[in-house]
Amino acid sequence: MNKIFQEKNGVYVLDHPLIQHKLALLRDKNTITKDFRELLSEVAMLMAYEVTRDLPLRPVDVETPMGTAHCHMLEGKKLALIPILRAGLGMVDGMTNLIPMAKIGHIGLYRDPVTLEPIEYYCKLPDDVENRVVILLDPMLATGGSAAAAVDFLKMRNIEDIKFVCLVAAPEGVNHLHASHPEIPIYCAAVDDGLDDHAYIVPGLGDAGDRLFGTK
Asked: Pick the residue with more confidence: 167 or 6?
């Protein structure tokens, strides 16, 4: 029987059959941009089920046409989706299909060519983001530098409740993110073998941003 996820040391590998099937199509070098974009959104929506599994519920009574049903509804925990530009944008629509009440922010980073330090070039967040559970989105966790820096910048704004969601992670990226922020849970569809000399995940799926937007 398929498990929903495998958890080890704060890394949740979501192995639902639909997620794994669509991930295989995303990896295929012959998948065209249109299909890649649609698949990425679909996988993000499927992953949202597990990322939000711990949301609190409250009991409610609902009047049906036949009587009273004792049900549960979300207790009101607020969510924010924060994609790391640019590839993280491809995961937003899928997530909001399932959690339309979530507010959306954006964070953009680049690496200084001399110091190699991450520089924040754009950040726009909901006004009440510090009171929300933040789901940080980026399809690839390669070196972990951008993810760790994004968490740094979020914490500088008094944001503490953060989850990181990606499609594919490299062990190097997992180790880097957890060395900097050990409390951050990582949700992914696969942990691959490692990085090549150019810091691409192997076997990975290539450059997610280029494949998403049709650029090279």
From this structure: 167
